[in-house]
Sequence to fold (501 residues):
Amino acid sequence: MKFLPPLAFRILVFGAVPALSACVVGPDYQRPALPAGAGYGTAATAQKAVGTGQLDAASPQLALGMDVPAQWWEVFHCIPLDNLVAQALKDNPSIEAANAALQQAQEQVKAQRAAYFPSLSASLSPSRQSIPQTLASPAASGNDLYNLTTTQLSISYAPDLFGANARAVESLVAQEDQQRFSLEAARLTLASNVVLAAIQDASLRAQIDATRTIVEDQRKTLTIFQQQVILGYTSKADLAAQTALLAQTEATLPPLEKQFEVNRDLLAALVGHTPGEALTVQFTFDALTLPANLPLSLPAQLVEHRPDVRMVEAQLHAASAQVGVSIAARLPNVTIQGNAGSAAFGLTPTFNSMTDFWSVAATLTQPLFDAGQLLHRQRAAEAAYEQAVAQYRATVVGAFQNTADTLHALAEDDSVLRANEVSASASRNSLDIAGKQHVLGDISQMNVLIAEQAEAQARLALLQARAARYSDVVALFQSLGGGWWNREPETGLSNSEESRP
Fold:
């Protein structure tokens, strides 16, 4: 191409015009301050007793300010569980969907940032034209039939005078953060559900075994009662009572077995399998251990680490930026356009002083009357921002409540567990004594079976208490955010996000 655009056109091409973009309207986002005295209340105070030696040695100790590991489920020291969580995070479709949503948000940010730069396009338009003889031919030769080829380079640029695009990019970046923390929330929820399902698997297996033991003992007791009725040693009323007790205990087995199978289906679904695909992993309480120490984040760290709080904060940030976008829409807008090219007779483009053309134009637009449309859109954006502020505050309050509730549950779990341990120990001692007395002939076989039933029932209650404590430990890690900030960058967050607290 032989023609050179004029100086003004070159300035437009090289982007010197962005210097005009010096003002950004709208509020600059700031995170709302925490409420005065934000904390866990009496829940944290009650937990101080954990470190005083008042609990049994197996009770985990809470450490205020202790960081949460990225793979927090590894604190249970169960390799099959670690493998199952890793498989779920890899194969569960919800994680794939959240990753795709994050990628979509990232591409939207890149697309909006392109508006900072001029847009450039080229066109080639060959044509064959016939001019009516009643009109003068534009061709120098005067021919009514000729070929015309137009080659054109067009550039357009809208300087971001008042920061409308800057605020639009800011809003989309905040929406990207929202999707990023939505992914982290999905990962945390999935990992928690897998661990809880594993605990439930261990609990239901143990409960079913204990219930079957109780049923077997009650059947033996019923047989003894039947024999004693024949011999006249007991009444038919006692026999009927034992028969009803056996039926009631047997009736508890089908719901437990149903719950067990449903939980197995859940485990399969969590790792991306259908119930028809084999899932051979099994869990027992013997394979799970409680950590010696449990983390407890400082109140200021809780809002930094909880994905749900960060998601709502990102929504608030996006709403703040949209206020600036709506304000800028009411201010003047400048568009600069330039064209350069060649219009030559024939089907082959030619570039010379006779065929070259160029133009540079600027358009200033200022809304004058729109029946209040832009004003009301600004007010709507401001109202949306106020709504987002209230939602953020509600989410923060809910986060502290959730964590405090979990701390209360952990404290109560220890009390319940200790009571059940005492009951189970007493039942075992009673069974041992009954067995020795039966050997000496002091008591009947029926008394031994009754002691066995009491021991099995106490063991069942202890299993339920252990499951509750394991589950509440999981709830604590979930309420504290799950440790995503300690994970390697390639597993979900960008490098910039990983550097945040």
